TrEMBL record:
It comes from the Bacteria. It comes from Rhabdonatronobacter sediminivivens. This is DUF2793 domain-containing protein.
Length: 369
């Protein structure tokens, strides 16, 4: 039978041994060093100048001075001398310092930081907070870092079916305010909500074509962007800056008009001009415009004859027509933002009573603001 215990090397009391207290005290002293083992440092190589009673160092592979030749041993300062104890595999030691405590485990390779096996199939995990049956992983922190392991990094959200949801939900006070992902479909979308109940799609990208849609329009520098859906409509302006559609086209009994966002307007009027009893060899008419211009100064009228239709002339021959034109601002004929006087001049004595020319065309270019 050995005189020492198998694990800690504690001395046994022998039969008929004298001074049994010496052996007993030696065993107690060894237990005092090794139970709840605390060291001043790991991989130590140089003895301290003034060690304190009971302090222990875990030595490295090449200690010097009083520790020379004791590589890997535990060096304990007891009763003014160094005692060296060889550690055994499985022993644990804690180093306590200003930055906290460090636990190490003695292995065949030396003192190593123990690596806990990561558990699988946990029902849930809460970090600084509690998880529940829906939020199986819950984290309460200022930030959450997911980094690479040497190359790239992917965060994968997988759903069972296209009608399910895989998304990132942004909340305020636990109420949804923005969401991005594939919610209820495989098309990618970004949507927002003011209250967490009613949602508006800001961007939808078709999963097959990659075509992006902005269902609620878009603004650039606070102004609505033009698109196929709003390029045609009612034009408007505020302080000379367009606020409506790009092109505004319309028609009524007086003809057709088109307004542009820059303020340009073009009108087209078809009317019949008749013989004037007040003027020999002259046909006249006041053409009412389909839309009002902003000012007379901006208007540029152009009168055209129906040159491709002989049937449009009645009581007058085309060869007898000498000229045609419109009244001028400030002249004798009518000229306003809604009506322009027009005339056709013929050779004297060639216009029959009641003569007329149908399908006269008056085009006016100007501004609507």
């Amino acid at each position: 039978m050995s005189d020492l215990s198998a694990r800690l090397g504690l001395p046994y009391l022998m039969p008929a041994q004298a001074q049994k207290h010496v052996t007993h005290n030696e065993a107690l002293a060894r237990l005092d060093l090794l139970v709840q083992l605390v060291v001043q440092g790991f991989e130590a190589s140089t003895p301290p100048e003034t060690p304190q009673e009971g302090q222990i160092w875990a030595l490295g592979p090449a200690p010097t001075g009083a520790w020379a030749g004791q590589a890997g041993a535990l060096a304990a300062w007891v009763d003014g001398v160094w005692q060296f104890i060889p550690p055994q595999t499985g022993w644990r030691a804690v180093q306590v310092g200003s930055e906290g405590a460090e636990l190490r485990l003695f292995t065949t390779a030396g003192w190593a930081v123990p690596q806990a096996a990561l558990p699988d199939s946990l029902p849930g995990l809460g970090i600084n907070t509690s998880h529940d049956s829906t939020n199986r992983l819950a984290v309460a922190a200022e930030a959450t870092l997911l980094s690479h392991a040497g190359a790239g990094h992917q965060l994968k959200l997988n759903k069972a079916a296209a009608t399910d949801t895989a998304s990132l939900l942004f909340q305020t006070g636990w109420g949804g305010r923005a969401e991005m992902g594939t919610a209820g479909t495989d098309d990618f979308a970004i949507k927002v909500s003011a209250d967490g109940s009613a949602w508006a799609d800001a961007l939808v990208i078709d999963r097959a074509s990659g075509r992006a849609a902005l269902p609620n329009g878009a603004t650039i520098a606070g102004t609505e962007a033009y698109r196929r859906g709003n390029i045609l409509g009612t034009v408007s302006q505020s302080g000379g800056v367009p606020t409506g559609a790009v092109i505004d086209a319309g028609a009524n009994a007086n003809g057709h008009y088109v307004r542009f966002a820059d303020g340009t307007m073009i009108t087209a009027t078809r009317f019949t001009i008749t013989e004037s009893s007040s003027f020999d060899a002259r046909l006249t008419a006041n053409a009412t415009l389909p839309a009002a211009f902003h000012s007379i100064a901006s208007m540029y009228p152009q009168l055209s004859l129906p040159i491709h239709s002989s049937s449009a002339l009645s009581g007058v021959d085309r060869t007898d027509i000498e000229s045609w034109g419109c009244a001028q601002p400030g002249g004798t004929g009518s000229f306003s933002t809604t009506q322009i006087g027009c005339s056709v001049f013929c050779k004297p004595g060639t216009v029959s009573a009641g003569a007329s020319i149908a399908d006269m065309y008056l085009t006016v270019t100007g501004r609507w603001f």
